[in-house]
Specification:
This protein is α/β, with parallel strands linked by helices and 278 residues long. It has 9 helices and 12 strands. The longest helix is centred in the last third of the chain and has 16 residues.
């Protein structure tokens, strides 16, 4: 990663041509609306949250309307692969997913965190989970982590359709802990006095917008839009709006990648591009 560039290089002609040809149609995207404060249902109908605001702003800057469909997380990536969605509202960029998807550069750091009842003892080490039941969201990175580590730490994995259901399993006593993104866990701890954040697992991972592997021009245009939203401070403002604090000094929001994608993952294009922001 480099600091926000001041020089202007040559912009991708392919992405520009794609954007012009597609200007009149609406994007279709899907998201899991049980993931506060990133995406959640509104009392009066519809959805709101950090990812919702980011997605709407990305589409607006690209001159497109955005149709948002709410889905369980496990249906999002298959929906993208089938052509149901044009791109996905942010998902965690992983090596496994990069084998089948293209990612924009990341714009939110994410770590894993456990959530437990307020009255339960603190969890300070994974070894304390031996013999415990951990609730996770079906098809998520936490589902994969739990499956890969259950034997090592002697824990059981209980799969639920949403983060909210996983947290409810903790409240009802069906699970000893839930595992989710750190910001979802911290949000739950603020909203519900009966639960609290527990052990944090640092990952170095980021959220990014994803497209099908063949949609290089679309990925590049989405990535350029993310760069511009970093450059003008929009992403930092939305971060503070929904997460309650400014991005940390070392946050991925504070820097713009020279190329497109997530460095170190398949599909990353390291060729320098210009900022072309309206």
């Amino acid at each position: 990663m480099t600091a926000i560039p001041r020089t202007v290089l040559a912009v991708s002609l392919l992405a520009t041509a794609w954007a012009s040809a597609s200007a009149q149609s609406a994007f279709s995207t899907g998201l899991d609306a049980t993931f506060p404060p990133m995406s959640m249902s509104k009392l009066g109908g519809g959805v709101e949250g950090y990812f919702v605001d980011v997605s709407q702003e990305v589409a607006r800057r690209m001159g497109r309307k955005l149709n948002v469909e709410v889905s369980s997380f496990s249906g999002l990536i298959p929906g993208l692969a089938s052509g149901k969605y044009d791109w996905l509202a942010p998902t965690v960029a992983t090596r496994e997913r990069a084998a089948n998807l293209l990612f924009t550069e990341g714009f939110v750091n994410t770590d894993y965190q456990f959530l437990v009842k307020k009255s339960d003892p603190e969890i300070t080490a994974l070894e304390q989970l031996k013999g415990k039941r951990v609730a996770i969201n079906k098809g998520s990175i936490f589902d994969k982590w739990c499956a890969e580590n259950s034997a090592r730490y002697g824990l059981g994995c209980d799969v639920y359709d949403s983060v909210a259901d996983a947290i409810q399993a903790v409240l009802s006593g069906r699970a000893n802990a839930a595992l989710a993104n750190d910001f979802a866990v911290k949000w739950a701890g603020k909203q519900n006095p009966l639960v609290k954040p527990a052990l944090l697992i640092k990952t170095g991972q980021v959220f990014a917008i994803s497209t099908r592997k063949t949609e290089v021009a679309l990925r590049d245009q989405l990535s350029m839009t993310i760069k511009c939203m970093k450059q003008d401070g929009t992403l930092a403002k939305l971060h503070e709006k929904w997460l309650g604090v400014p991005p940390a000094a070392d946050s991925v929001i504070r820097s713009i990648d020279a190329g497109h994608g997530v460095s170190g993952l398949e599909g990353y294009d390291a060729r320098p591009v210009s900022l072309q922001c309206s």
